[in-house]
Amino acid sequence: MRRDGRRSTNIDDRRGQRMAGVGGGGLLLFRLLPWLMRTKGGRILLLIGGGLFLLSYLGLDGGLLNQLTGVGSTSGSRNEQLTAQQQELADFVSIVLADTEDTWQDIFAQQNRTYAEPTLVMFTGAVRSACGTAQAAMGPFYCPADQQVYIDLSFYDELRTQHGAAGDFAQAYVIAHEVGHHVQNLLGIANSVNAAQSRLSTDAQRNQLSVLQELQADCFAGLWANHANRSRQVLEDGDIEEALTAAQAIGDDTLQQQSQGYVRPESFTHGSSLQRVQWFTTGLQQGTLESCDTFGGAQL
């Protein structure tokens, strides 16, 4: 992906700031309690788009892993030196975020809407959000309560080394997916999904709505790539292949097979590898909000 675009000013760089104290995870645990009580053993649901796990009760990308132990507030000053490579990666993230801003501003304007730009928070290890305390093990996630995207950039190393999804456009896809959740929040889709899930009686039914929501965020990521390339010619040779590789690598079936040796489709929360690739491709090829209606006739 070309790197000569503008940089976003909606970046909150908290890298190198460490969390101090204990107990910050209590808020998140409290808010997750109804969901935990509905599941067998409060099992962790695997992955999203650009992250590793999902807090489906909150409508967020991310997961619990070490979350339930909790940590405290963020230190106000940076206490570790960032390398030139880390700074370069942060600069790229800023370019991608800026490009999503330009794309969604245009799309919303065409519908006589105003696009409220999200803030992207870069952190190291753990961070406090309006949705509770998050740790890097969650992967990237979006918090609708503060309309911010959170990412520990070390996730990109994991994406490359553990999932074989290297390349800058694979990284861009992760950000575009999380911004897709922000778009869902602005359009009222996220609230509708949460309300519909609260009326359902089984985990499998609630999971199916989560899958449709995540696949739509994948489609929105493809839609962004379509508009950005038509308007600003941002794509380079191999970029689309990198994004498709990332989508393939983080499908629920692929992750479950890798982690537990078998696949349980009823527990999917983000969609299979094939579904994720198909919906990203749909957004990329058709480039319209209407083409990203993953819900179809589902009651929301």
Quickly describe the structure.
It is built from 9 helices and 8 strands. It has helices spanning 26-38, 84-110, 155-161, 168-186, 189-198, 203-232, 239-249, 252-260, 273-286, and strands at 11-14, 54-55, 60-61, 119-123, 126-129, 132-135, 141-143, 148-151. Helix 2 packs across helix 4.
Protein described:
By secondary structure, this protein is of the alpha/beta class. It has one domain (11-292). Helices cover 47% and strands 9% of the residues. It contains 9 helices and 8 strands. It has helices at 26-38, 84-110, 155-161, 168-186, 189-198, 203-232, 239-249, 252-260, 273-286; strands at 11-14, 54-55, 60-61, 119-123, 126-129, 132-135, 141-143, 148-151. The strands form 3 sheets. The chain has a 4-stranded mixed β-sheet, covered by helices on one side. β2 (54-55) and β3 (60-61) form a beta hairpin. α4 (168-186) crosses α6 (203-232) and α6 packs parallel to α9 (273-286). 47% of the residues are buried.
